[in-house]
């Protein structure tokens, strides 16, 4: 007769108890961590928005007009995944459009004049976009990837050599003409493509959307001219960078009946703010006095806290993140593709490959200040030793020096995340591609990269989120803690948001150390959270396509 062993029974009971204890300890740790983070963020936002100065009437007014309707909407959407997805898409795409518009206006008006932008659009941006579109149309054109690489390498050289005549041609068109040809016309083609391929619109309807965008850009000019704060150039940039993502989100939400209630979210927010402002004005309630306002993001540092701003640091951070994203994506993903797809798996070279992989993993854990010293030793000291032979003259505290140093910092993280994403693609898919006669490059381009792209992009953007918040490497390469003007170019001096916040933290005035610093932290958090949101959207989008 079979009997249950006491040892087995006791072992099972002990494991069950341990599992229950571990479950509740993990739950308690998660709650504590979330509450601690929530308290910290609430404290920072409280100081940055100046909510302590608001009167009771202001809180009551906006509670009734905005907070209660939003809570009711969230309670309604909680059990409806389609409504949640539509709401998140509308919010994130609109926010991304607003940030892109701001960054576009800043970059196109500060980093490059309209004429310079036109020159490099003709020699770099336009050809790359055209080749990409052709590659999507003709999947069998194996030369497209090499052609894009050639444009990346030779396009800037051609644009620089032809800068004079191309800038002269751009001057004949004027700023609105340049932005119309280089932004609105390509955006019209993108809108038509997205309407047909992503939204499943008919060809006639997609063509109408593509034609309608330039028509709207021209037809709205008389109305834009009546608004002094908005120029024609800003209107064209905003129409493309804000209108395209927001319009896509609206159209994608509208085509699914289950998502229609998501439109209540922007309506509640807009009408709630308007109604709250009307009530506050009617009852004479005291509004908050926020440190984070329009003046804060459009002015430079000042000795007076009320007049201090973060504008030069914001521009410096935009310079940095654009360059770092280009450097890390090209070199990081390229290195990961070689190590996973081309590096030999046996023989003497395989041992070297394993050593490289181990060293990359170790470099991911090196403190950031060490990378600052590395940037100081490589990118700064080399100039002082080469003297007049230094190309372009980049050195201490310049945009290019800081960007390359931060690229070194996150490059191991990007390589490792890209390797893991590429490694997750099943070998059976590769073998199936080879079995159909595809070459190794065709297999990588058409099979491996589309399947691994969600992980690659997610890891890259999260790594960029770390780079934009780093301070120690910038201190080591001589970035300014306070600068009263934005950088003039890639070889100009810069400061960044973390550096300026670091400088304000040591001011003796409480207004600086609490109000101004809190506003800077919130600005930095908004940028980082937006980047993380983009990472989630990109990952989900490509995961759905891969499945």
TrEMBL record:
Membrane-crossing segments per the record: 21-46, 58-76, 88-111, 117-134, 141-164, 176-194, 206-224, 230-251, 263-285, 310-339, 360-382, 394-416, 512-538
Molecular-function GO terms, alphabetical: phosphate transmembrane transporter activity
Location (main, coarse): membrane
GO terms for cellular component: plasma membrane
Places the protein is found: Cell membrane
Residue ranges annotated for the ABC transmembrane type-1 domain, each copy included: 314-535
Keywords for the protein's UniProt record, in alphabetical order: Cell membrane, Membrane, Transmembrane, Transmembrane helix, Transport
Entry's Gene Ontology BP terms: phosphate ion transmembrane transport
Topology of the protein relative to the lipid bilayer: Multi-pass membrane protein
Pfam family membership, one: BPD_transp_1
InterPro entries (alphabetical): MetI-like, MetI-like_sf, Phosphate_PstA
Family, as annotated: Belongs to the binding-protein-dependent transport system permease family. CysTW subfamily.
Record protein name field: Phosphate transport system permease protein PstA
Biological classification of the source: Archaea, Methanobacteriati, Methanobacteriota, Stenosarchaea group, Halobacteria
């Amino acid at each position: 007769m079979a009997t249950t062993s006491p040892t087995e029974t006791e072992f099972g009971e002990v494991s069950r108890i341990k599992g229950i204890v571990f479950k509740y300890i993990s739950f308690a740790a998660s709650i504590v961590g979330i509450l601690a983070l929530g308290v910290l963020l609430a404290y920072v936002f409280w100081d940055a928005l100046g909510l302590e100065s608001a009167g009771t009437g202001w809180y009551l007014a906006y509670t009734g007009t905005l907070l209660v309707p939003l809570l009711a909407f969230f309670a309604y959407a909680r059990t409806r995944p389609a409504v949640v997805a539509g709401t998140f898409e509308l919010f994130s795409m609109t926010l991304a459009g607003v940030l892109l518009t701001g960054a576009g206006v800043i970059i196109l008006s500060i980093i490059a004049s309209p004429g310079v932008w036109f020159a490099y659009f003709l020699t770099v941006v336009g050809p790359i976009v055209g080749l990409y579109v052709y590659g999507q149309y003709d999947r069998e054109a194996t030369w497209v990837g090499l052609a894009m690489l050639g444009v990346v390498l030779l396009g800037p050289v051609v644009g620089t050599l032809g800068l004079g005549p191309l800038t002269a041609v751009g001057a004949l068109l004027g700023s609105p003409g340049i932005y119309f040809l280089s932004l609105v016309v390509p955006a019209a083609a993108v809108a038509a493509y997205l309407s047909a391929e992503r939204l499943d619109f008919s060809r006639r309807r997609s063509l109408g959307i593509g034609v309608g965008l330039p028509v709207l850009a021209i037809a709205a000019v008389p109305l834009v001219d009546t608004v002094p704060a908005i120029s024609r150039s800003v209107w064209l940039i905003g129409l493309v960078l804000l209108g395209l993502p927001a319009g896509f989100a609206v159209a994608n939400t509208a085509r699914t009946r289950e998502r229609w209630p998501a439109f209540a979210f922007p309506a509640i927010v807009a009408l709630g703010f308007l109604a709250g402002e009307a009530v506050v004005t009617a009852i004479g309630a005291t509004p908050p006095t926020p440190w984070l306002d329009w003046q804060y993001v459009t002015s430079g540092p000042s000795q007076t806290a009320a007049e201090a701003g973060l504008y030069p640091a914001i521009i410096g951070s935009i310079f940095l993140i654009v360059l770092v994203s280009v450097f890390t994506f090209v070199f990081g993903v390229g290195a990961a593709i070689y190590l996973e797809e081309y590096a030999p798996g046996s023989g003497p070279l395989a041992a070297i490959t394993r050593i490289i992989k181990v060293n990359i993993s170790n470099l991911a854990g090196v403190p950031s200040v060490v990378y600052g010293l590395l940037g100081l030793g490589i990118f700064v000291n080399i100039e002082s030793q080469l003297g007049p032979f230094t190309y372009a003259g980049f050195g201490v505290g310049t945009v290019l020096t800081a960007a390359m140093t931060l690229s070194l910092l996150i490059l191991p993280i990007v390589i490792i995340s890209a390797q893991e994403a590429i490694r997750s693609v099943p070998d059976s898919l590769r073998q199936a591609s080879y079995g159909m006669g595809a070459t190794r490059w065709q297999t990588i381009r058409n099979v491996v990269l589309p399947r691994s792209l969600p992980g690659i992009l997610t890891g890259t953007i999260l790594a960029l989120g770390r780079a934009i918040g780093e301070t120690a490497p910038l201190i080591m390469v001589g970035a300014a803690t306070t600068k009263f003007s934005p950088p003039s170019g890639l070889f100009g001096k810069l400061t960044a948001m973390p550096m300026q916040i670091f400088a304000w933290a040591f001011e003796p005035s409480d207004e600086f150390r609490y109000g101004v610093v809190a506003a800077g932290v919130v600005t930095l958090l908004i940028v980082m959270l937006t980047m993380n949101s983009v990472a989630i959207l990109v990952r989900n989008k490509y995961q759905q396509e891969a499945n």
